[in-house]
């Protein structure tokens, strides 16, 4: 690895160590209002909703509180982990981060609106559907968003594995092999 690649690797992993400090506070501080207000606006257009104190939306005689689990700060962090542990060029990384964060945000807001509509209509299986989406659906959404990102941005590197391969190659190979392996790895990762 040259100095630029080493610096990039260190910065990416230091960011990953710093971001979750404060129990993912930064993710919830950013994404709570970005989730609550669009959901409120949708419920307001559909039902004439009111936004109450503490991220509670009142509509059709029901109270819906958008709690931390609804905001899904940990999912944003997981998507960011996948992005930052995958080597790629800076421009591609920025586009990728914007895509994964905003895609997940939009899907999450749509999910909240759909469940609010189901709840207000007295959907018989609301609790079951809500729990299934909570436990299984949220994981599937993260996986789908990540693989859509990989496909859209033609990412060929594998999170963590490609970084470890670079490091292992640098440590174990003789200088001539290192240069050849490095060129092959870079060629595959930058495509």
Structure commentary:
With 191 residues, the chain is mainly alpha-helical. The protein has one domain. 74% of the residues lie in helices and 6% in strands. It is built from eight helices and three strands; from the N terminus they run ααβββαααααα. The chain has a three-stranded antiparallel beta sheet with strand order 1-2-3, with helices on one face. Strand 1 and strand 2 form a beta hairpin. The radius of gyration is 21 Å and the shape is elongated. The mean pLDDT is 89.
Task: Summarize the SSE layout with pairings.
Layout: H1 3-18, H2 25-47, E1 50-52, E2 56-59, E3 62-65, H3 68-71, H4 73-84, H5 90-120, H6 126-152, H7 161-172, H8 175-190
Antiparallel strand pairs: 1-2, 2-3
Helix pairs in contact: 2-4, 2-5, 4-5, 4-6, 5-6, 7-8
How many domains, in number, for the residues?
A: 1
Within the largest sheet, what's the order of strands?
1-2-3
Total count of helical runs of at least 4 residues: 8
Series of secondary-structure elements, N-terminal to C-terminal? HHEEEHHHHHH
Strand content bin: 5-15%
If you average the pLDDT, what whole number results? 89
How many strands, which pairing sense, and closed or not: the largest β-sheet? 3 strands, antiparallel
Distance between the termini: 18 Å
Number of strands: 3
The low-pLDDT segments are: none
Rounded to an integer in angstroms, the radius of gyration calculated over CA atoms is: 21 Å
Structural class: mainly alpha
Q: Percent helix among the residues?
A: over 70%
Q: Write down the overall geometry.
A: elongated
């Amino acid at each position: 690895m040259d100095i630029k690649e080493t610096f990039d690797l260190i910065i990416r992993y230091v960011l990953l160590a710093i971001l979750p400090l404060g129990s993912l506070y930064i993710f919830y501080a950013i994404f709570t209002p970005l989730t609550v207000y669009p959901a409120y606006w949708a419920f307001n257009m559909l039902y004439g909703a009111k936004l109450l104190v503490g991220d509670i939306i009142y509509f059709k005689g029901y109270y819906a509180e958008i709690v931390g689990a609804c905001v899904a700060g940990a999912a944003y962090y997981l998507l960011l982990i996948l992005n930052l542990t995958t080597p790629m060029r800076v421009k591609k990384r920025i586009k990728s981060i914007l895509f994964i964060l905003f895609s997940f945000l939009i899907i999450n807001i749509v999910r909240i609106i759909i469940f609010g509509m189901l709840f207000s209509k007295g959907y018989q299986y609301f609790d079951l559907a809500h729990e299934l989406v909570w436990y299984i659906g949220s994981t599937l959404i993260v996986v789908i968003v990540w693989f859509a990102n990989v496909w859209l941005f033609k990412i060929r590197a594998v999170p963590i594995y490609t970084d470890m391969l670079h490091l292992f190659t640098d440590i174990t190979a003789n200088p001539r092999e290192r240069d050849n392996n490095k060129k092959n790895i870079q060629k595959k990762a930058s495509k």
